[in-house]
Write a structure and sequence with these properties.
By secondary structure, the protein is mostly beta strands. It has one domain: Phosphoribosyl-AMP cyclohydrolase (Ubiquitin-like (UB roll), Roll). It has one helix and eight strands.
């Protein structure tokens, strides 16, 4: 059983209420610090991520939990988790096992916008 996560000796209490039961979860490559993707977690996804050590999200379209890599094998292994000052967003440093984006790109943020 996973222990209760702590911040400064206090239990983590994420604010799932602000976005209707969800918190944004930013995933960053632990080694390169590149941003890999953004997903959303409900409380069950958060707990599963803590329990199994693999990044798990709540799919808003399928309305179910999904652990990144469950079909592709391209898991995101949790290395560090940080919570923002309002406790309504998490930053997960992870070790990617394969490309993160469903397109095969390393990161979902591979398209640059140019200003006109």
């Amino acid at each position: 059983m996973a222990s209760t996560p702590m911040i400064d000796s206090q239990p983590v209490a994420l604010d799932f209420a602000k976005l209707g039961g969800l918190v944004p979860a930013i995933v960053q490559d632990h080694a390169t610090k590149d941003i890999l993707m953004l997903g959303f977690m409900n409380e069950a996804a958060w707990q599963k991520t803590l329990q199994i050590g693999l990044v798990t999200f709540y799919s808003r379209t399928r309305r179910t939990l999904w652990t990144k890599g469950e079909t592709s094998g391209h898991h995101l292994v949790v290395r560090t988790i940080r919570v923002d000052c309002d406790a309504d967003t998490v930053l997960i440093e992870a070790e990617p096992h394969g490309p993160t984006c469903h397109t095969g790109a390393t990161s979902c943020f591979f398209r640059a916008v140019s200003r006109a």
